[in-house]
Amino acid sequence: MASLLDLAFVRSQFPAFREPSLSGQAFFDNAGGSYACKAVIDHLDQYYRETKLQPYHLHPAAQKAGAQMDLAHERLASYLNVDVKDVHLGPSTSQNTYVLAQAFGKLLKAGDEIIVTNQDHEANIGVWRALASRGVVIKEWQVDAQTGSLNPDDLEQLFTEHTKLLAFTHCSNVVADINPVADICARAKVAGVVTLVDGVSFAGHGLPDVGALGADIYLFSLYKAYGTHLGVMVIRDDMADKLGNQAHYFNQAYRQKWFVPAGPDHAQIAASRGVLDYFDALHDHHFDATDSVAEKAQRVRNLLHDAEQILLAKLLNFVEQHPKLTLLGGTDPTKRAATVSIIPKGQTVQAFAQKLVDQGIICGAGHFYAVRLLEAMGVDTETGVVRLSFVHYTSEEEMDQLIHALDVALN
């Protein structure tokens, strides 16, 4: 199957591919942060040059700055299929989750239960576990030790009348297993349980239709989805009302400040709309015009997904067949994201990763904050895994470069 994606057009939208210092370097560390698209960089530059002052004040430049921030919220909401008042932008997903945990901690009482997984990034585990000091009961939804996957049927035994919150990931940042979010959220809703979904490792592969997923709270990081270093929170209106204002008391009238105690990063918020500018350009280059944002967003999701699937199948096939590599997670490319974690046989993870780096492969090695998952799967967390992650702008030539580098590093 050939991809419809015009890769030359895509890469023309990312200045990194024209950066001399990165020439010849194949970028396979996207799960740690993607390249920023040109529209984001341009908006950030413009903001700092033209409107670097307090937004929303009386001066025209201040009004322009505020309008740019408002537009970013509106455009994110439209692509995510949620109401604009449900979109909140904070400094990072880790910080946003911490603030949410403090808010929940004020509502919960001793004996209330929170379910976490051991598949998640620690940012979506540790803050909830810390509430045990207040008498909250923490229950763990455990992965299969062989595959690293979660079984939704296990929730039947975990839910009780005392269960108040289920925090889980849309997609593992190590085994890349994509969870059936809509099904899980539907089960939780029947049980009267609030759902909080960490979408950080999923969103870079196509911003999800959060409205269709049914989560009460959905989180992801824009800097892993071609944007600025911000964390996006979608918090349903009724859920936000229950949690209440976590910022200065006099900001009660400003809903978008409630869950950002330190205040918004004006420039980065204004520039974040560049991600949607890029997706719009991507759509218009490949498809006929449409007035439906929902249709446009779905077409872009499919375009990104199909482009990644071809390369993912090629990489998984190489890893699965090589006798000196151990793959974490499943081998079916349709059930996982384009993140592949491996352990070499006969050499350390760090030495192996260095051999790849020496051949122009940008990759990472370690536990990637998924310590509990690696422990459950019997992996040494001191050394961790080599993680190879890519997105739609990765070329077939770069994948061939990676596979050749893997082959050389294993011999």
From TrEMBL:
InterPro entries: Aminotrans_V_dom, PyrdxlP-dep_Trfase, PyrdxlP-dep_Trfase_major, PyrdxlP-dep_Trfase_small. Keywords: Pyridoxal phosphate. The keyword Amino-acid biosynthesis does not apply. Residues 27-402 form the Aminotransferase class V domain. Pfam families: Aminotran_5. The keyword Transferase does not apply. It comes from the Bacteria. This is NifS. It comes from Marinomonas profundimaris.
